[in-house]
Write a structure and sequence with these properties.
177 residues; alpha/beta; Rossmann fold; five-stranded parallel β-sheet; 7 helices; 54% helix; 14% strand
Amino acid sequence: MKPESSLILVGMMGAGKSTVGRLLARRLKRNFYDTDEEIERRCGVRIPVIFDVEGEAGFRARETQVITELCALDDAVLATGGGAVLAEENRRIIAARGIVVYLHARAPHLWQRVRHDRNRPLLATADPQKKLDALYAERDPLYREVADLVVDTGKQSVQTLAKDLLARLEGLCSLSA
């Protein structure tokens, strides 16, 4: 197992990376970072505005910079944006810097979670559900490529998911609470 002890969460929008990450960080007594929140904090605007002004390419460049910086931290819990795995450089950095957990949810479950969220610029299309299905098909293999552990988010509570995830992680590494 990798000597670094950061915990890095990957997965689709709506998979629960930020929610589960915050809870895991509290339980592990670690700092929590969310790449999307960090980008918004640095820019002073929401992600849809960044997409409007700079396009997806501009946002992705900012994302790589933030991932590079946050993945260099030790003993952190990091929630990445759903598209972070699209760039090979990001996948390399993420896979090298800690224990990577893919929070997996099937596309229909994701749709139920994100369909009313207006902070999802990639779903601002005529058929957002079809777009989500296409994103899932493209990204699922990339999440699996970098993951040390794949966890189905299912329908359990966040607390149950975090408890189960911590138990599974104990078998992979020496994370201490």
